[in-house]
Design brief:
Strand order of the largest sheet: 1-3-2-4-6-5
Distance between the termini: 41 Å
Number of strands: 6
Strand content: 5-15%
Oligomer: single chain
Number of domains: 1
Helix content: 40-55%
CATH class: Alpha Beta
CATH topology: Uracil-DNA Glycosylase, subunit E
Radius of gyration: 17 Å
Amino acid sequence: MAGTAAAVRRLARDVGLDEIDARVSLCRACPRLVRWREDVAVAKRASYAGEPYWGRPIPGWGDRAPRILVIGLAPAANGGNRTGRIFTGDRSGDWLFASLHRVGLATQGTSEHAADGLELVGTRMVATVRCAPPQNKPTTAERETCAPWIEAEVGLLAGSVRVAVALGSIGWDATLRTFRSLGWEVPRPKPRFGHGAEAMIGGPERDVLLLGCFHPSQQNTFTGRLTETMLDDVLARAAAAATMAP
């Protein structure tokens, strides 16, 4: 998919945030992901049979000059792929937004649909892969093809970001790779992901604190690998660090 990735990079280059959002929503670079997201939007889960589905790539969402950046994996087939907003309308989002609200980074603790009035406070969310993948597992080639979108978006936001919260190891790796592609100094050897892990990414004028957090997927929350307290601790650390940073 090297040629496809190059084409995506050309589309993402030298445009503003609104144009990135518009262009990413029309992306059809990964045939497997296009088929899956559109098939799900037609077949629909029975409980959402009467609802329209977005069925397209998901743009970033939140503050336009955020101090905190939350990096996830990809939209859920019947979550963001249905509602058109990242982490909205699925169990992972239920956990994440409830925690963001508890630590003061969201105006309400639920995220049901794109017009529910929810706002993030000094925070923006982006996905590593913008389309819902089968079994929530994008391929390496799909992650590489989609990378120019997150690189372009983070490039526009980097001037305000003080803290990046990576949800899961793929989000962690994507964050490090993205900042490195933008010319920031990433520690070597590469910092290892873990819940509560921390690393400093060196920028031209200041550093960004990278925090690791287990992804609030049902696989982690149902098994107790991630608890509400664990999630709150990482997001509260992010809120405090963003406030203290110059």
